[in-house]
Amino acid sequence: MLMQDLMLKIDPKKLLYLATIIEHGSLKRAARSLNATQPALSSSLSRLESELGIRPFERTPKGVIPTDLGEILHCHARLIRDEIGLSERALQRMGRSPSRCPAGEPTEPGDGSHASRAAKMGTSSS
After folding, report:
1. pTM
2. Residue 27 and which of 9, 49, 107, 117 are 20 to 30 A apart at CA?
């Protein structure tokens, strides 16, 4: 299997679940945090493992320990989660729906966005 084929099979939601499992150290605590059942979370994780052909962590009586590959996935899952959060906050600040947000426009204060330029010029961005 080519690495490109592998990447097409990664479900971002399952990656976010994986991050939560690793961060909580157990499926039980992660399930509680996600308002999900432990069997549902375990099933989702099993599908991810099957789809990717890897074990992202070792299950122990005390919880889970990420493997090296699990750590890599965890890093990327955190980035995805952070980007989703940044997008949500930017959209809330801008008061725009996702379909109207210009592609590639920075949205942080002082970043050259329309709102920042308008503020510097003393005009309203509305």
Report:
1. 0.66
2. 9
